[in-house]
Amino acid sequence: MFLMLKFVLIDTFVTKMYVYFQLILLLFIVVIDLQIQAYLNQLHQTYQRTVQLKHFGLSVENRNLTAIKISTGGNNRRPLIFIDAGIHAREWLGPAQAIYIIKQLVENSRLLKRVDWLIVPLLNPDGYEYCHVVDRLWRKNRSKGQGCRGVDLNRNFDFQWSQHSKFDHECSNTFAGQYPFSEPESLALSKILLEYAHRTKIYISLHSAAQSILYPWGYTTEVPNNGKELHRLAAKFSDAIYQVNFTEYKVGSAANILYLVSGTSRDWAYGVANIRLSYTVELKGVQSHILERRFQIPPEQIFSAVSEMFEGIKQLHSYIEGRYGY
Ligand SMILES: [Zn+2]
């Protein structure tokens, strides 16, 4: 009897603790998720004439996928720069960089005169929350599998999908999904990219931390037919960043600089949405053989990292403005 009571008590205690833990987790999740949403809403209130918010889908756990459109006019005919961030959960500098760019744009109308901007600051909100409260190194989204959770959204795009066997297992950190666009986050991004593809002159996907500017292809070491333009512009971009603090960004095709990879948003944007200037920007990281440290840029270095990168972004803008400005 005593023993049973003891078990029941332990069981009740464990159950209670589990419920408390879940509640605390939920509270954290709600708070973190709302910070970015609240900031975007605040910008919409403050800059009603230039800022529009577009909720273009829902994540696996039903969080809003939000894009911010920044435009001062032009009847939806101006060239557009499309930027996304946070596709990989643990690469926290991406969303920070996107928010910095958004802030600079709304406060600096010179960059809005002849070019529109569409920015998705957090494409994988479920994974982002999860790596804040449970596993700092979580990379994928949070979809349920047979035994493991999560699909690498940047392997799930429907272009040369799953070319490499290492993306086949659902427990792998780079699992490409059961089929192309199986995930609501990657599918939603592809739809909004297609909606704006006719006037998107540059697509940039922000990642970290390989400190490089990568153009197609990832699935093969060959380079597309406008490879020279892709390379020249990336070199200008990299030079502009270097001028600020002498930070060096490598430039090249993804397969040649990093590794062979298929089903990425960058290759899809180029190969399917036909956006001829398509880049993955791998932001600054920390040189370390410990994986976790590479994504943990010290807080005091964040401002210089995102502001020097913005000098590169301005270079891209002036290229687009000069060539296509409406
Ligand atoms: Zn990444």
From TrEMBL:
Belongs to the peptidase M14 family. This is Peptidase M14 domain-containing protein. The active site is at E282. CDD domains: M14_CP_A-B_like (cd03860). It comes from Pyrocoelia pectoralis. One of its GO terms (cellular component) is extracellular space. InterPro entries: CARBOXYPEPT_ZN_1, Peptidase_M14. The keyword Zinc applies. Pfam families: Peptidase_M14. SMART domains: Zn_pept (SM00631). It comes from the Eukaryota. The lineage of its organism: Eukaryota, Metazoa, Ecdysozoa, Arthropoda, Hexapoda. Its cofactor is Zn(2+). Residues 29-320 form the Peptidase M14 domain. SUPFAM superfamilies: Zn-dependent exopeptidases. The chain crosses the membrane at residues 20-40. One of its GO terms (molecular function) is zinc ion binding. GO terms for biological process: proteolysis. Keywords: Carboxypeptidase, Hydrolase, Membrane, Metal-binding, Metalloprotease, Protease, Signal, Transmembrane, Transmembrane helix, Zinc.
